[in-house]
Amino acid sequence: MSARTHKALAMISRVCWPVLFVAVVLGFRYDFPFWAVVGPGLVIVVVDVVRLSATGTAHRATPQREPIEVDAPFAGRWLAHNSPADKVPSHGTHVYGQTYAVDVIAEPADGPARPPFSPLWPLARKPGEYPAYGAPLLATADATVVHASDGQRDHLSRTSWPGLIYLMTLESFVRSLGGHATIFGNRVVLDLGDGTYAAYAHLKRGSLRVRAGDKVTAGQQIAECGNSGNSSEPHLHFQLMDGHDLESAVGLPFTWRGVGLPANGEHFTPPAAAESAEPAAGIPPVGTKS
Questions:
Q1: What pairing do the DSSP bridges indicate for beta strands 267-269 and 221-224?
Q2: Which DSSP string corresponds to 15-64?
Q3: How far are the Cα atoms of 123, 126, 127, 191, 265 from residue 113, in angstroms, in the given order?
Q4: What is the DSSP letter of 248?
Q5: Residue 167: phi, psi to the nearest 5?
Q6: What CA–CA distances, in Å, run from 257 to 121, 127, 264, 272, 287?
Q7: What is the residue-averaged pLDDT of the chain?
Q8: Which long-range contacts (CB under 8 A, 24 or more apart) does 122-125 make?
Q9: For a 10 Å CB count at each end of the chain, is N or C smaller?
Q10: Per-residue pLDDT tens over the stretch 122-171
Q11: Higher pLDDT, 223 or 12
Q12: Least confident of 46-50, 101-105, 233-237, 255-259
């Protein structure tokens, strides 16, 4: 399926959802024709089945390839979550090129601690309470910026049971109607060359240091970590893919130089963060895991 066809089907589905919602709500008061409710629902089912089947087929048709090694896009001590080291697809879907995506959360060894999950109270926290918020994000390789946007707000955390239930049900559904833009939030896509692209999601509003068309070098700061889009707390969603269009891209496996691919719940420090440390016994500094 072409990228244009995929986009058109996605748009049809998103338009039908609010139509279906309005028809159902008004149906409690007005006597709507049967087709007014069934019609949009049937279109949604058919279109999404065709679109998602095509995405799955595209993924299965992708030749097996070795993971692509790139630099970690941050410094310091971080925690891996939703890692492809544990399952593929890591986020439970191939959509938007997320097959091998990983989420990482800053948990510095020194400095303010990351607030724990609270079952009931506080219901939510300000993003600035998390050490990941505002953390510098770096170019993972020499690249060209093909997309950069940071106009969406950074919302409160969803780190209580009521907040998480709200995120997983109502909020996720509403965001899905907007497609990848409202799921990924503020984002940057880099062209690494050789048909490989890197996507950074959930960036801090107003933090971009690049724009489309800019050339960047590995390790150059391009943005800051935030809490925009479909996010429970400030973190970075990172992935490699075979195209710049998130609607049709297929995810690609990767590893981070000096770190590999951390598993869920694993703390790690990329080499860039360890360079200031004194090498032991003449051994050059490398990434560490704990």
A1: unpaired
A2: HHHHHHHHHHHHHTTS---HHHHHHHHHHHHHHHHHHHHHHHHHHHHSPP
A3: 19, 14, 13, 34, 16
A4: T
A5: -65, -45
A6: 40, 29, 18, 10, 8
A7: 80
A8: 122/160, 123/160, 123/162, 123/163, 124/156, 124/157, 124/158, 124/159, 124/160, 124/163, 125/156, 125/157, 125/159, 125/233
A9: C
A10: 888 899 999 999 999 999 999 999 999 999 999 988 888 888 887 878 77
A11: 223
A12: 46-50
Distance, CA of 36 to CA of 50 (rounded, Å) = 22
Helices (H), 62-196: 161-166, 172-177, 180-184
CA dihedral in degrees (35, 247, 89, 125; nearest 10)? -90
Owner of token pair 């068309």: 213
Instruction: Locate 102 and state its tokens.
Output: 């990983």
Q: What is the widest separation between alpha-carbon atoms in the chain?
A: 81
Q: Which residues pair with 221 in a beta bridge?
A: 138
Percentage of the residues of the chain whose pLDDT score is greater than 90: 52
Could you give the CA distance from residue 262 to residue 83 in angstroms, rounded to a whole number? 7
Q: Facing residues of 68 across strands?
A: 254
Burial of 126 (0-12, 13-18, 19+ CB in 10 A): middle
Evaluate whether 188 touches 222 at the Cβ level (below 8 Å): yes
> Tens digit of pLDDT for each residue in 206-263?
999 999 999 999 999 999 999 999 998 999 999 999 999 998 899 999 999 999 999 9
